[in-house]
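Hello forum,

I keep getting stuck at the same step: I have a sequence, I want structure tokens, and every attempt I make locally crashes halfway through. Rather than fight my setup again tonight, could one of you with a working pipeline run this one for me? It's a single chain of 448 residues.
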Amino acid sequence: MAFAALASGVSGLKAFTEGIGAISDNIVNLNTVGYKETRNRFTTLVTETQSVQRFSPGGVAARAQTLVSQQGLLRNTGSQTDLGIDGKGFFLVRSAPSANSPSGTIQFTRAGNFTPDDEGFLKNTAGLFLMGFPVDRNGNIPTNLGDLGSLVPINTTGLTGTAEATDSVGVRINLQASLAAAAGPISAGDLASGSVTADFERTITIFDAQGSAQDLTLAAVKTGTNTFRFEIFGDPTSMNTAATPPGLVLSGEMLFNADGSLQQYIEDFPTATTINPGAGNPISPTADITYANGSGTETVTFKLGTSGDTDGVTQFDSISTLISTSANGAVFGNVIGVNVSEDGTVTALFDNGLSRDVFQLPLATFPNPDGLTRLQGNAFGVSDFSGKFSIVLPGTGGAGTVAPATLESSTVDLAAEFADLIATQRAFSAATRIITTADQVLQDLVRI
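Reply #2:
Ran it on my machine without issues. Output:
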């Protein structure tokens, strides 16, 4: 029996030593991002006996449990690449950027303190690479989210610059009502060729698909009561070189109501079309612009205003003037940063004011996250107790949302850990007394 008591005391020393180790690990990781508290669980060790009249001590064993499912406090950092998760789920990471690397196995973490390394890859402080799905130019991601082979390490500096071609131009112009009508018939292209002098002429800038700035001229001449010929043309050597005359983009007659509002547009180039939509509807002819620099052809919509309204081209008796223009598109720009949204979309920001979705962050969910295996670098791996993971988009399938510019704090409660440390230390001391007492009993038996 003395030997059994000695073994029981030794099991206590071992169990409480492990318990102090778990508490110590919690305390030193108090400020570790995304750290999950490990709690001590003690269970009895029972030695079988054939008699109900005798007791055989077995001792105690420590069973540490990491509370992976516990949500830590989210705190704001101001850095767009610091990412937290509000709710369930884990970021998918690798310890190497390539899946072919010996250390390229997918791991899971909530430590979202990612920063670009010298090659532009987003890594957290443990050196784990953040993985995501690439987004194509049409904004699509792979349809099979379970295909881990589609995941790529997110790189912020490997993104190329981008430009955007103009496909929409809005204008607000006033044409002077008291102008004298030009003599003689005026045909399509007469303003572009210069054979007829325009009453109004202004130049605006648009952009081709390569980001090059291209000039468009807006010209008008009065042809009759409440009627103006309106043409849009560019440099005959840089766009629509095959048109007649070269450079012509759009030509037609504008008809105005008696109150100066635009009524209809009778187009004769590039097609013969009458745009008379009725009051309250937009007058927006389209035309193809083919650029001579090889950047292709772009269909551009010209928003001339609303029929019966004064929100576009008008005819009032004040000097003809270009009030405002609104043309989309942008010159070529380089990447200046990234932004991450709550749905996990990683957007590249360019210095020309454009933005483009480039990656989609997935999240992994588990039936039992508390059963995950702890790995180096505050990461986790799949185990038999965790169950198989599912890859979902943030905010779907029971997963939480991404919290940009925030980090998840450790779930350690320092006051509770110190209290547990004291109690466990006292239990350890008591176990040593068991061993001392058992030793004295053995000495007495030897003397006997």
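The first strand starts at residue 38 and ends at 44. If your local run keeps crashing, start a new thread with the error log.
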